[in-house]
Amino acid sequence: AQKVTQAQTEISVVEKEDVTLDCVYETRDTTYYLFWYKQPPSGELVFLIRRNSFDEQNEISGRYSWNFQKSTSSFNFTITASQVVDSAVYFCALSGPNDYKLSFGAGTTVTVRA
Amino acid sequence: DGGITQSPKYLFRKEGQNVTLSCEQNLNHDAMYWYRQDPGQGLRLIYYSQIVNDFQKGDIAEGYSVSREKKESFPLTVTSAQKNPTAFYLCASTIPGYNYGYTFGSGTRLTVV
Predict the structure, then answer these.
(1) Do A52 and B104 touch (CB under 8 A)?
(2) pLDDT above 70 (res A64)
(3) In chain B, which residues have pLDDT < 70?
(4) Is A45 in Cβ contact with B90 (below 8 Å)?
(5) Which of A32, A53, B71, B89 has its CA 20 to 30 A from that of A23?
(6) Which residues of A touch B1 (CB under 8 A)?
(7) What's the mean pLDDT when you consider all of chain A?
(8) In angstroms, rounded to a whole number, what is the distance separating the alpha carbons of residues B5 and B89?
């Protein structure tokens, strides 16, 4: 069975602060895929990143960065110099090699105050 | 532009009524999914379909039904057997075999009145 845990329910920061969202996963598959999605107040989920289990390189995209550590089964997401537009719910998700169903964490609500 | 269209955006249902949520995609994706979102619980899978005329139950299929008569369309019916239907419903699609993740629609918020 697959499981994704996002222990932080809500995070509130002041603009320009960095914020890190934790994601811990459980799976028996040796090949799997991890994702992060952003859900702004409009409701639609926006894809941020996909990472397969064989690629442990960290990734940076603008103010976003991701730290994937198989040893601790974690795939953490950091927003650097946060902005009000970053306010959203962020979901971590996991899928297996041949099963394209995504298992989602409960989500972390990020509020960035001006 | 390609994408997924969900309608209506807001839907109100009386007790005992069946309602159908629409999901249409023009991405030529084979696989389509329905998720339910409740506060603090993330997204839970209701039904999914990987090819036309075939679909499988997800984790919380009771009280729901679907059909997949066309590749582009995957409507979800919330039946009167669903005891707590008030939620936000999201439709998604993907190309099986590539694990690219999903493209999501903008969702339908269903409220029982």
Answers:
(1) no
(2) yes
(3) 1, 98-99
(4) yes
(5) B89
(6) none
(7) 92
(8) 12
Length of chain B: 113
For residues B19 and B79, what is the distance between their CA atoms, to the nearest angstrom?
A: 7
CA B8 distance to own-chain centroid: 12
- In terms of CA atoms, which chain A residue is nearest residue B92? A45
- Tokens read off for B23: 């999901």
Query: Minimal CA–CA distance to A21: which of A110, A101, A114, A83?
Result: A110
Beta bridge partners of A91: A37
The Cα–Cα gap between A96 and A34 comes to 9
Q: How far is B42 from chain A (nearest CA, A)?
A: 4
Angle at A41 between CA A37 and CA A46, to 5 degrees: 25
